[in-house]
Write a structure and sequence with these properties.
The complex is a heterodimer. By secondary structure, chain A is mainly alpha-helical. Chain B has 4 helices and no strands. By secondary structure, chain B is mainly alpha-helical. In chain B, α1 packs antiparallel against α2. Chain B has a single domain, classed as 3 helical TM bundles of succinate and fumarate reductases, CATH 1.20.1300.10. Classes of the chains: A mainly alpha, B mainly alpha. The interface between A and B is medium-sized, with 34 and 34 residues.
């Protein structure tokens, strides 16, 4: 049955959702992190594109590169998870498709971040004989 | 119209996307979303690169030769444009969040700058890569 109360009337006095702006702020903060990492990332891609497997291993053995690439993966997968969430929420209204897509997006981003970081750390901490 | 009940009455609609005249700000907004989705794929390519690296020299060589093939290069160039445009347009968004840059002339100019930065920047980077022997 239709309510005669306006949306504003229903919302007034209910208080804020407290954490409603969490994603909004997280999206901006991760954007700033990615902005700071961009210059190093472009330079690294040029170094890696020029070299072979050995180049990549040596590059990753540098603690600075290993730390920055881990931070890049965290910031990027976090940022894109929120971004894709907004896209899904914009185009898929039915709960039957929206919820599975949101969960798939969340799982894919966590899986991508975990896979990237663990693979890179494995090489970064591997013994020199593996080269 | 008079018989229409409150529940079935047609609500006013905002103009449909086909009615809008194309603005550069609108193009930049759409491109921001499109490049963001493209970079989602780019991040998965990065994850694949990390996996290939962890699997050893053979897997890494195979992965890099796929990325270095002609279709691979086309994808990577598109991703370079996407990174640079999304970055520049993201800076526009950060200024908007601070309440600045909303004047139509400013918004138009920064949209053009972001698009030019994405395309010209990618071409410049690929020229640098070619000069360094990274292609």
């Amino acid at each position: 049955m239709a309510s005669f109360r306006t949306p504003l009337g229903r919302a007034l006095g209910a208080g804020s959702a407290k954490r409603g702006v969490g994603h909004f702020i997280g999206q901006r903060v991760s954007a700033v992190a990615l902005l700071l990492l961009a210059g190093w990332a472009v330079w690294s891609v040029l170094v890696l594109a020029r070299g072979d497997y050995g180049t990549a291993v040596i590059w990753l053995r540098s603690p600075i590169n290993a730390a920055l690439v881990a931070l890049l993966a965290i910031a990027a997968f976090y940022h894109m998870q929120i971004g894709m969430r907004v896209v899904i929420e914009d185009y898929f209204e039915a709960r039957g498709t929206r919820a599975p897509l949101l969960i798939a997006n969340l799982f894919l981003c966590w899986a991508g971040a975990a896979l990237t970081i663990i693979c890179l750390l494995k090489v970064a901490f591997g013994d020199a004989g593996a080269v | 119209m008079a018989e229409a009940t409150p529940t079935s009455r047609e609500r006013p609609l905002s103009p449909h996307v086909q009615i809008w005249r194309w603005h550069v700000t609108m193009a930049a907004s759409i491109l921001h979303r499109v490049t963001g989705v493209a970079l989602y794929g780019g991040a998965l390519i990065l994850a694949g690169w990390a996996l290939a690296l962890a699997l050893g020299p053979n897997a890494y060589g195979g992965y890099m030769s796929i990325l270095g093939s002609f279709p691979g290069k086309v994808v990577l160039f598109a991703l370079t444009v996407s990174v640079l445009f999304h970055l520049a347009n993201g800076v526009r968004h950060l200024f908007w969040d601070a309440g600045k840059g909303f004047e139509p002339r400013t918004a138009d100019a920064t949209a053009v700058i972001a698009i030019v930065f994405g395309v010209a920047g990618a071409m410049a980077l690929w020229l640098v890569a070619a000069a360094l022997g990274a292609l």
